[in-house]
Amino acid sequence: MLRRNLVFSAAVLLGSAALALQTIPDRARASPWRADEDNTRGWQLMSQQERIDHQARVRSFTDYDTCKAYRKQHHELMEQRARERGLKLFDDREGFCWRLKRDAQPEQD
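== Secreted protein ==
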């Protein structure tokens, strides 16, 4: 049952990522942010294609709340995978959505 739920969750996440990739503007794909094992929670639990899709998805966000919702969903999936393998994931504190929050704030004179 747990395995079925994990497979279903992964399929939903990957399907969402594939759909999002179709609408990502080229400028978002060219962003300098790069996902890697030092800044991506669950990196070691993702396939190469999942890593590529995750990075593209993260680069596509323009709204802080949407980004935070995706980040929460991604972390839940990675936590589930980690539990199944007896691993502990690092805490990435603010994570990759910080740039959207920073960019949304008005400049101080």
